[in-house]
Design goal:
Strand content: 5-15%
Helix content: 25-40%
């Protein structure tokens, strides 16, 4: 169903996305058992190779693998031969020689996951490559919205903030659009990529994007990727684009508030909104484990034979 690798959502079919979301439901049930483990992928080996700092994505992939009975090995670039100057291609060849089944990669350069996939026979899952895509984040966001709203089709989704540097935004645009949502983008002009309308998303003012929105997704300002001069100051950004209670009032009364984390509280979102009754930020984290369990299970061939999760 998924093919050899999961590199992004841009070319993923609606059928495949829905298969992943449907599979994530039973996976979340496993997480609530007293013994959070099933033998579905026993004997498989998953390597997490992270060239960037991560808490949510890395831990959730490693937990997902353990819940499916995989053997897991975590590699951080600072503690590997990468710190000695080894290239990604050489690292890939070294790992391939050890015969892992799945490699989960996060890398600061766009296209790194595709390069790795060409070099190894193992399945490769993109856990974020530069400002390109972060497909499993979009999948967990889709799963969360579908669980809360019962559908994606016809919803208005506002994505607000640093669109230009956000792999979450790119994957989110493809995923939500593919399932029939209307995606509106808002943010400073200096942080809006050129020709983004070609994706089908609508570039709008903050007020237009929030008006009657069903879902409001706030993005972290990725100052580590930005060049100087794109923003006057964090305070001015908070005043002009931060989500507070008054601005949230423009959205529908039952609108969901989302954030991929980590949050800059008081910058892109106020604490009262982040911790408020419409926030599903904590649910996103839980659903991230379930969705990544589904991805590992399906990419390794689960569900293609008469296999059970028990």
């Amino acid at each position: 169903m998924l093919g050899k690798d999961l590199l992004g959502l841009e070319y993923m079919s609606r059928e495949t996305i829905e298969k992943i979301l449907d599979t994530a439901g039973p996976m979340r049930e496993i997480m609530h058992r007293s013994i959070k483990k099933v033998p579905a992928l026993r004997g498989r080996t998953v390597v997490t190779l992270f060239y960037e700092a991560s808490t949510r994505t890395r831990v959730s992939f490693e937990l997902a693998a353990k819940y499916l009975s995989c053997d897991t090995i975590g590699i951080a670039s600072a503690a590997s031969s990468v710190a000695k100057g080894e290239s990604l291609k050489d690292t890939a060849r070294t790992l391939a020689a050890m015969q892992p089944d799945i490699i989960v990669l996060r890398h600061p350069l766009a296209g790194a996951a595709a390069l790795l996939a060409r070099e190894v026979g193992a399945h490769v899952v993109n856990a974020g490559d530069g400002a390109h895509e972060h497909p499993t984040q979009a999948l967990l966001d889709l799963f969360t919205v579908r669980e809360k709203k019962g559908r994606i089709e016809g919803l208005k989704v506002a994505i607000v903030g640093d669109i230009a540097h956000s792999r979450v935004a790119r994957s989110g645009i493809w995923g939500f659009s593919r399932l029939g949502a209307r995606v509106f983008l808002a943010g400073p002009a200096t942080l809006m990529p050129e020709a983004v309308e070609k994706t089908g998303a609508v570039v709008a003012s903050l007020e237009e994007a929030l008006q009657d929105a069903d879902v409001v997704m706030m993005l972290r300002l990725q100052t580590e990727r930005q060049k100087s001069g794109l923003l006057p100051s964090l305070n001015e950004y908070a005043v002009l684009f931060g989500l507070n209670r008054d601005r949230l009032g423009l959205a529908r009364p039952d609108a969901l508030v989302m954030h991929p984390g980590p949050m800059n509280r008081g910058v892109e979102i106020t604490p009262e909104v982040a911790d408020g009754p419409r926030s599903v930020i904590v649910e996103q984290v839980e659903n991230g484990v379930a969705v990544r369990m589904a991805v590992l299970y399906l990419i390794a061939g689960g569900g293609s034979r008469h296999e059970t999760l028990d």
